[in-house]
Amino acid sequence: MTLEDLGYYNELEAYRKEHGLEGYDVGRVISEHKERYGVRTPEGTFDAEIIGNLRYTAQKREDFPAVGDWVAISAYDDDKVLIHHILPRKTMIARQAVGKHAELQIIATNIDYAFIVQSVDRDFNINRLERYLTICHTAKVTPIIVLNKIDLIEQADVEGMIKMIKEREKEVLVFPISNATNEGIDQIKETLNPGKTYCLLGSSGVGKSTLLNNLSGDDLMKTSHISESTQRGRHVTTHRELKILENGGIIIDNPGMREVGIADTEGGLEVTFDTIVELSNECKFKDCSHTSEIGCAVIEAIENGEIDEGLYENYLKMKREKEHYESTVAEKRKKDKDFGKMIRQVLKSKKSRKF
Ligand SMILES: Nc1nc2c(ncn2[C@@H]2O[C@H](COP(=O)(O)OP(=O)(O)OP(=O)(O)O)[C@@H](O)[C@H]2O)c(=O)[nH]1
Ligand SMILES: [Mg+2]
Ligand SMILES: [Zn+2]
Fold it and tell me: How far apart are alpha carbons 235 and 47 in whole angstroms?
């Protein structure tokens, strides 16, 4: 196995040279568990910890390694290494966690494509799909929609779902598949490129790990046997994990997500809802809120049936969420800045008092 099989690419090598990191080995973070990491190199898999300096200077989640990262390492024991440096991330998929300690969660880094998996028997939800699409577009990762478990419903219903998706999201690839009958699995295999990194996103129980096992032809991941009576599984995959497929392609499996909060400051929303954004350029008023204005191109398009009303409602809902997130980020930055200013003032007055 070479570094390229693990997804290594030229820009990283150039960075390594420019930043004097040639004295270190390079590896890829394949698992993470409470500040301990699994790092894969062409030589094997190693237990890793970060060096003290990295830990003390780390200020936020992004400063710590995440699954998918390329890291500069040095060996300190037979199967142990130290992480000295995180190489720049090509992409980072993150979501806004909800609740009290709502901080940004890194789902995976250095991803090229994301499989957004829903199971057609009970999980299909177009609004949620659009949330995942926005997360991908924000991260500049190409999304691919996978509708799994098509063995469980009528084909006509599957076609209805695909039609609904195509009406709202024209650009995205959709793969209807079944891990039970293997329908559609070959098509997915054909899209996998060697050296490219994919990640699996979706709710718990939709069959992400089963798909990964199926693609690899090996039981790499543990999967559930949810009870037929309740159909309510517990989370089976509890940690993110990166796997390398023998016939090329690298896949990161994720635990199922309950909530998909939008942490978009990069315009991912505008890509997902590009039809609405384009239309809004034609509104009579520049500051049109697309709710009641005369000459609103968006309202007109809904009335003509040119765009789906559900699409529009989901857009408004997510836009509010994005605005809320952006204002919290701005507020936090201001607080940090004020705090920094105060510290500097204290230090300055200390100095002038000449201790
Ligand atoms: N009928 C049917 N069942 C499937 C299919 N794919 C997966 N399953 C079943 O769905 C259940 C959940 O599959 P998992 O692969 O563990 O789901 P997951 O998305 O990895 O779940 P988490 O790890 O909890 O996020 C298992 O019992 C699988 O056997 C399919 O195509 N058809
Ligand atoms: Mg799983
Ligand atoms: Zn308008």
Answer: 25
Q: Is the CB of 178 under 6 A from ligand 1?
A: yes
Question: How does 61-90 read in b/e, with b if 16+ C-beta sit within 10 Å?
Answer: eeebbbbbbbbbbeeeeeeebbbbbbbebb
Residue 218 DSSP one-character state: S
- Residue identified by tokens 């693609």 is 215
Three-state SS across 76-126?
Answer: EECCEEEEEEECCCCCEEEEECCCCCCCEEEEEECCCEEEEEEECCCCCCH
Encode pLDDT of 55-74 as tens digits: 999 988 899 999 999 999 99
Q: Which helix (H) or strand (E) is 247 found in, with range?
A: none
Q: What is the pLDDT of residue 29?
A: 97
Could you list which residues have their CB under 5 Å from ion ligand 2?
208-209, 236-237
Cα 214 to Cα 76, 103, 194, 195, distances in angstroms: 37, 34, 17, 19
Q: What is the CA radius of gyration of the chain?
A: 23
Is pTM beyond 0.85 here? yes
91 lines ligand 1 (CB under 6 A): no
Lowest-confidence segment of 136-145, 253-262, 310-319, 330-339 by average pLDDT: 330-339
**What is the best residue among 213, 224, 227 to mutate for testing ligand 1's pocket, by most ligand atoms within 8 Å of CB?**
224
Alpha-carbon distances, residue 180 vs 35, 43, 73, 118, 122 (angstroms): 37, 36, 42, 15, 16
Cα separation of 245 and 25, whole Å?
23
Residue 124 near residue 116 (C-beta atoms within 8 A): no
Lowest mean pLDDT: which of 6-20, 104-118, 188-202, 279-293?
279-293
Query: How many whole angstroms separate alpha carbon 160 and alpha carbon 68?
Result: 36
* Contact present, 239 and 33 (Cβ < 8 Å): yes
Helix runs in the chain, H state only: 10-18, 52-57, 126-139, 155-168, 185-191, 208-216, 268-272, 274-280, 297-303, 309-352
- When pLDDT is averaged across residues 312-338 and rounded to a whole number, the result is 83
Spatial separation of the C-alpha atoms in residues 33 and 238, rounded to whole Å: 10
> What CA–CA distances, in Å, run from 110 to 7, 138, 284?
9, 14, 42
